[in-house]
Amino acid sequence: MNKPADHPPIPPRRVGVLLINLGTPDAPDPPAVRRYLAEFLSDRRVVEIPRLVWQPILRGAVLTTRPKKSAHAYAQVWREDGSPLAAITKAQAKALEGAFGPDVTVDYAMRYGRPAIGDRIQALKDAGCERILLAPLYPQYSAATTATANDKAFARLATMRWQPAVRTLPPYHDDPAYIAALTSSVEESLAALDFTPDALITSFHGMPVRTLQLGDPYHCHCQKTARLLGEAMGREVTITFQSRFGRAKWLEPATDVVLAALPAKGVRKIAIVAPGFSADCLETLEELAIRGRETFLAAGGTHFAYLPCLNDSRVGIDLLRTLLARELEGWVRLS
Ligand SMILES: C=CC1=C(C)c2cc3[nH]c(cc4nc(cc5[nH]c(cc1n2)c(C)c5CCC(=O)O)C(CCC(=O)O)=C4C)c(C)c3C=C
Ligand SMILES: [Fe+2]
Ligand SMILES: [Fe+2]
């Protein structure tokens, strides 16, 4: 019998890592935003209202008014290289290329809009990837983000006779590596300010309260992230939820309501960070850094700082490398 050492080495199997984020319009104009919103808001994981009731509202009131308003907001944060969310996600994938050795390709896709998840899974398969790690970049799990990204990927896999093997990145809301990355990023941003904030606000994207009642862990995940960040920093952090959409009751306290109320309580200097977003986007750069600032200053606040997301910063990329390397165990040999 041959000793194991006599066997030829197992040929490396090509592995793909697909970073996935929410998606964004192709341009900051009303037609592009309308196409994007039509796809996004038709997702039944996002708007959980019966199709027959919701579609007429979406096609009527929502898609006739919101694209213009949202396009105006997008125009304020659009960069030379496109939408911040797309540009930063692309930069994250680029920064991770080669991080797991020569047999691992890192790519990115968007749940809505482009590059489409199905197209990039096909491209990875065509490039010879027999194993794919799907990585929805949401620290806190919700059906409206993590699950729908995975659904979309599995829908494409469902069309394949010869599927690649697939793993998915779990939520990492309480992962010590994530909390440490957030802590160091926030502390570094605070150290660069020319004032000392009276309060540190952590603003998470909101969700309808009903999703919490139905068992979505999102709210609990956000609470835990904020608590762990506060403990790691040894200071109080105030948790708020932003971006309310529609008529249903959303998670509270609402970020805009808190920002408007703080100065009357003597809190005139604040820093705000959005730990639930792995990349800066419309919701952080326009809603928090522009409109949030206006709300706070108009209410009597004197100092406002928006602290950036982890993005493709050194700390942000180190975090992604740590989280992804763990999931690649057994697929690639990482020393
Ligand atoms: C980070 C987690 C997110 C959760 C949870 C989430 C839930 C959620 N969002 C909407 C409606 C909208 N969200 C919009 C933009 C948007 N949302 C997220 C992330 C989460 N959403 C991101 C990263 C972005 C930014 C996209 C970008 O291009 O930069 C928008 C579009 C913008 C607008 O018109 O205001 C809508 C609409 C719902 C209904 C929902 C939960 C059910
Ligand atoms: Fe959203
Ligand atoms: Fe918003």
UniProtKB/TrEMBL annotation:
GO terms for cellular component: cytoplasm. It catalyses: heme b + 2 H(+) = protoporphyrin IX + Fe(2+); Fe-coproporphyrin III + 2 H(+) = coproporphyrin III + Fe(2+). InterPro entries: Ferrochelatase, Ferrochelatase_AS, Ferrochelatase_C, Ferrochelatase_N. Pfam families: Ferrochelatase. Pathway: Porphyrin-containing compound metabolism; protoheme biosynthesis; protoheme from protoporphyrin-IX: step 1/1. Keywords: Cytoplasm, Heme biosynthesis, Iron, Lyase, Metal-binding, Porphyrin biosynthesis. It is an enzyme of class 4 (lyase). GO terms for molecular function: ferrochelatase activity; metal ion binding. It is found in: Cytoplasm. GO terms for biological process: heme biosynthetic process. Its EC number is 4.98.1.1. Fe(2+) binds at H205, E283. Catalyzes the ferrous insertion into protoporphyrin IX. NCBIfam families: hemH (TIGR00109). PANTHER family: FERROCHELATASE, FERROCHELATASE, MITOCHONDRIAL. Belongs to the ferrochelatase family. This is Ferrochelatase. It comes from Sphingomonas jeddahensis.
